[in-house]
Q: What sequence folds into this?
């Protein structure tokens, strides 16, 4: 079994690795992004001996492999992640953010889901909906909150693992205001269609 922890690893879900939520142990674990604290592009792969012992000299290559600066940066980033309790912060604040977002009563929000500080807000689709997740991200950006839309329908929220509870509530207030703007945009677009 191979676990892809490129986005979910290093505390994002409220556990060190996303797979830690399940009762499984992967044979191969792929990691990246957060391993260097965002300072350098670093990725990695760890695997059990029964896999690694089948890879001999010349069987595997890497364009940037063995970069001492990247390894030192990654070591410091992971050490800081652990020492400063960022994983625990994600585990504590993620559910608060999700619960507050679920309180936003909008006919345009289909679902809020996630783990830790890895949250998705899904925008409904259908004949009564003329807006999408990209519209939502643009409105949120105008209000000062950066998000990313996946598949035009899902907003991906990945706040910094050092976020404070007061910042969570500020983000929720921005979400509330942006949701009202999204609803107004939807109504205007639907009226223009008719």
A:
């Amino acid at each position: 079994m191979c676990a892809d922890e490129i986005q979910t690893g290093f505390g994002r879900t409220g556990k060190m690795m996303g797979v830690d939520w399940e009762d499984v142990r992967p044979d191969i674990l792929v990691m990246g992004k957060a391993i260097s604290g965002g300072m350098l592009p670093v990725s990695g792969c760890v695997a059990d001996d029964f896999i690694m012992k089948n890879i001999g000299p010349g069987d595997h290559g890497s364009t940037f492999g063995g970069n001492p600066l990247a390894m030192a940066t990654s070591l410091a980033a992971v050490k800081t992640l652990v020492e400063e309790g960022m994983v625990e912060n994600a585990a504590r604040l993620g559910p608060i953010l999700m619960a507050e977002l679920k309180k936003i009563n909008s006919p345009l929000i289909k679902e809020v889901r996630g783990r830790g500080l890895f949250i998705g807000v899904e925008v409904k689709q259908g004949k009564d909906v003329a807006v999408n997740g990209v519209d939502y991200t643009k409105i949120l950006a105008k209000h000062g909150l950066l998000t990313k839309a996946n598949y035009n329908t899902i907003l991906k929220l990945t706040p910094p693992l050092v976020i404070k509870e007061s910042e969570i509530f500020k983000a929720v207030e921005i979400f509330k205001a942006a949701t009202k703007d999204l609803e107004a945009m939807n109504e205007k677009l639907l009226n223009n269609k008719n």
